[in-house]
Amino acid sequence: MSEDNEDENLPSAAECEKRCQCFADITGTDTALAMFYLQDRNWNVEIAVNAFFEESNQDATAQNQGTKRGLSESANPEASSKQIKLADDDPEPHRIRLLSWNIDGLDMPSAEKRTKEICNIIKKENPQAVLLQEVTPVTLPILQQNCTGYRVISGGSSEYFTAIMLKDGQVMFKGKEIQPFENTVMMRNLLSVQCQIKGKPFTVMTSHLESTKDFGDERKRQLKQCFEAVKAEPASQNVIFGGDLNLRDKELSAIGGIPGGMCDVWEATGSRKECLYTWDMMRNTNLVFDKFKPRCRFDRLYLRHSNPGTIKPVYFELIGLEKVKSCGRFPSDHWGLLTHYDIIKI
Question: Most buried of the four, 165, 220, 307, 346, by CB within 10 Å?
Fold first, then answer.
């Protein structure tokens, strides 16, 4: 092949940089090594990654084993091809997004229309992981049918429950666990999913803690159990826990505050006042209050970094702030919490 033909087949500079970063993210190396492997393999990311693992023989670590299984034709040729192609096309290789949202599936008159709009918002915002509360047997199929680019993992099957959604091609599912709350009277539990997000090890957890002021003592017991579960995860894992915790600040203080090594993502990203209230009846009209209109930060997200750290929380925003035209209601009585994390280059 002539040098002229080689130049014609060479991707653009921006595309080369994107493929180098994709290689680096998958292998846990850097872009300089990525360029070395890619240049000799016509800039084919899949071939280059396979060559790296074959030559470096790094099968000992769980992360590399998972990546290699994802690229192995013997495991699942269609899935592995889809995964590497989607990763190669990722417009934000340095960014991870996670959404938490109580989608109010119990408000049945408008549940179908609102859930379909929630699906549209999820597809627009494109988070890698979604933590959902108040999913129901009615709304679960809507999520599955309208968010076909996600794997939906439920924490229950009757009345109402939690669910976690993982984006195909960018998240590798490892396993799930459901921890019951012994004294719940509202069918609440803790749903945990182990996965790799863009090659980084994660455990994502969600719960819908006991509701109303009268159940504050039980809610505190549940929160302590959740915090203990976070602390029990291996140090190699990034752990994100959250959901509709129905939490009051005094309850958090009563159990000793946030455990060491963990942070409140809203606080870690600057405590923006416009994102303080996640259940805000002064702005959200789905529920009717005659006089007093409560404003609460019921929904929260907590992060425990891996060791060494691989992500940094950089932005926190509320979504679902516009009414659904087909029913004249907001997507939920809760706002969604969309959080953004930068991948740290090690």
Answer: 165
- Residue 9 pLDDT level (bands cut at 50, 70, 90): low
How would DSSP label each residue in 238-250?
EEEEEEE----HH
Please indicate whether residue 244 is annotated as part of the active site: yes
Q: Sign of the CA dihedral 112, 118, 119, 124? A: positive
Residue with tokens 């504050």: 216
- Per the CB < 8 A criterion, the answer to whether 96 and 311 are in contact is yes
Q: Order of strands across the sheet with 262-264?
A: 171-180, 189-197, 200-207, 238-244, 299-304, 262-264
What is the torsional sign of CA 215, 111, 132, 335?
A: negative
Q: Model pTM?
A: 0.76
The single residue of 25, 88, 90, 244 carrying the catalytic annotation is 244
The amino acid at 269: T
Q: Strands, DSSP E only, in 56-170?
A: 95-102, 129-135, 150-154, 161-167
Asked whether 222 and 210 are in contact (CB, 8 A), the reply is: yes
